């Protein structure tokens, strides 16, 4: 999981079609308030993504699964070795 700081995003929409899981939405979509709060909370404290990495080996198994939050959420997400 990654988060985007709502105050830094200018809603250009470029990232939305690039997300392979189609998991990025503009903050104007109704019903996303909880995600906005989560993004605002963790964007300042989680590490910035500065390099491209391969997705987790099991990413496809979770793609499209609903109700991932909060069952899979960790406030301290793991960082694979580079
Ligand atoms: S919509 Fe995506 S690409 Fe555009 S500013 Fe926001 S996070 Fe960055």
Structure overview:
It is a single chain. The chain is mainly α and 82 residues long. It has one domain: Alpha-Beta Plaits (2-Layer Sandwich). The protein is 17% helix and 0% strand. It has helices at residues 33-42, 59-62. The two termini are 17 Å apart. The chain binds iron/sulfur cluster. Iron/sulfur cluster binds at residues 4, 9-15.
> What is the percent of helical residues?
10-25%
Beta-strand percent range: under 5%
Structural class by SSE content = mainly alpha
Seen as an oligomer or otherwise, the chain set is single chain
Brief description of this entry?
The chain is an all-alpha fold and 82 residues long. Helix content is 17%, strand content 0%. The longest helix is centred in the middle third of the chain and has 10 residues.
Topology, please?
Blueprint: H1 33-42, H2 59-62
This protein binds iron/sulfur cluster.
Key attributes of the depicted protein:
82 residues; mainly alpha; Alpha-Beta Plaits; binds iron/sulfur cluster
């Amino acid at each position: 999981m990654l988060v985007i700081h709502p105050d830094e995003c200018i809603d250009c929409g470029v990232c939305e079609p690039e997300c392979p899981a189609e998991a990025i939405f503009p903050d104007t979509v109704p019903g996303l308030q909880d995600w906005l709060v989560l993004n605002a909370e963790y964007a300042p404290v989680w590490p910035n993504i500065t390099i491209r990495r391969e997705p987790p080996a099991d990413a496809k198994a979770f793609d499209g699964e609903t109700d991932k939050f909060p069952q899979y959420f960790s406030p301290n997400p793991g960082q694979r070795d580079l």
